[in-house]
Amino acid sequence: MTAPLEFSTRAHQTDEPPISYFIQQGVENPNLISLAAGLVDPESLPVEEVRAVTNEILADPRSAQAALQYGTTQGYGPLRDKIHRHLLALDGLKPSEVSNSADDIVLSTGSQQLLYLLGEVLLNPGDIVITEAPSYFVYHGILGSLGIRTLTVPMDDNGMNTDALEELLTRLEASGELPRVKLVYTVDYFQNPTGLTLSLPRRRHLLDLVQRFSKTQRILILEDAAYRELRFDGDDVPSIKSIDRTNEYVILAMTFSKPLSPGLKTGYGVLPRDLVGPLLRFKGNHDFGSSNLDQHILDRVMANGSYQRHVEELRGVYRAKRDTLLAALAEEFPPANSPLRWTRPVGGLYVWLICPPALETGPGSPFMEAALREGVLYVPGSFCYVKNGVVPNHEARLCYGVASHEQIREAVRRLGKAAREVMPMEKITMRGLAGCKA
After folding, report:
1. Which of 162, 229, 296, 407 could link 403 by a cystine bridge, Cβ 3.0 to 4.6 Å?
2. In contact, 312 and 319? CB cutoff 8 Å
3. Closest CA to 398 of 15, 16, 9, 22
4. What is the pLDDT of residue 27?
């Protein structure tokens, strides 16, 4: 008889990502329309742009050899220089106005690797990370794997409620637990999952809070700005990183996956200077550096202007898809007589749907089962909350990234049919929406 494998504590702490079942359903059922997985629009992927620069690289033996060789653990220097200039331009700053440089940028295999590496470098089991509620549930999985205690603060139309954060930090200080607080995590542009954006006053308040409460150890803000460049309405707001002029309190995590191509699988972080070396030691143990060829491709795409042109194109693509989804929801659930509500994002890929509590949306709920029978998939909102308290079970994340306009309209029609099958609209009262904002 073969002896059983003995797994690590971390393996036992690592749960199956809740989205896996829904992705599998979307792949295996060709008749299912998925508004679940946060995939990008397939028709707008930069096929020609990537083909052109790849041909350029491989046509010249010197550039081909450089791209096909090992790179550095930190990442291709010319690309890091371009990223730094790009970020300064986004925030309207000059190099002299910031304390960070290309030397503080680390390229990673997607921003997901960066999030995991930061956990390994900064967090011990039992440490505390504070996130929004709801928040990016895949990051919750990383924290659970590392044995981290995750606490949350609520959101409203202006993003993370920083007054509630201040109250939480005050309570943790009074209870003697403040030294365990290591990170405050926020998806501050067109948040995954709600589509909401952190307002400028709250960005300033958030930075002030971590500075004031960094008494025995420095508390860092992990600013996940994966969707920042996908704004299609309204005025931009500066990154929290740009407000941290001393480069001490904010880690900025970004990616090329959403504004360009997830297949190139490249993310990057701008780190406080004293965090770069420790993180690179961990990354060296992982992979000695992310794909060098992909970094050379990205460097060329940024150099010849096709990156910025593609981002501009994507803004139009996603604005149109957002509008299609919002119009379909308003037609299927007319606001005048329906208690369902939803956010109106000004960028990104997500709309947050809020139903009355009587219309539960979680796995195994009558509504979820009816939606699957009708052939439409969404992410249950309960996935986006940390399971350490009362978890709302009447919300859903809808992604308009991958579905076509026709599919979006049909998906909403199917959601409406599923909702009416479970509970006729005239029986759903407005009482359940008290306090909900959308």
Report:
1. 407
2. no
3. 22
4. 63
Query: Which has the minimum average pLDDT: 11-15, 119-123, 160-164, 196-200?
Result: 11-15
Among 304, 332, 352, which residue terminates a domain?
Answer: 304
**67 & 25 share domain:** no
Q: Which two tokens stand for residue 346?
A: 């000004």
In this predicted structure, the answer to whether residue 189 has a pLDDT above a threshold of 90 is yes
C-alpha–C-alpha distance, residues 216 and 59, integer Å:
55
CA distance 195 to 343: 7
Position 427 pLDDT exceeds 70: no
The CA distances from residue 216 to 1, 166, 271, in Å, are: 53, 17, 20
In the listed set 304, 336, 358, which residue is the last one of a domain according to the structure? Answer: 304
Q: Which residues form the domain of 105?
A: 47-304
Strand partners, 255: 267
Q: What is the pTM of this model?
A: 0.93
**Residue labelled with tokens 């049919």:** 417
Average the pLDDT over 344-372 and give the result. Answer: 95
Angle CA 261–155–405, to nearest 5: 40
Task: Let me know whether 258 and 125 are in one domain.
Answer: yes
Taking a C-beta distance cutoff of 8 angstroms, is the pair 183, 123 a contact? yes
Burial of 202 (0-12, 13-18, 19+ CB in 10 A): buried
What CATH number is associated with residue 377? 3.90.1150.10
Mean pLDDT over 344-373 rounds to 95
> What is the reported pLDDT for 432?
33
**pLDDT of 101 above 90:** yes
Q: In terms of domains, do 355 and 241 share one?
A: no
Write down the pLDDT at residue 26.
61
Indicate the pairing of strand 395-399 with strand 376-377: unpaired
**C-alpha 145: how far from chain center:** 18
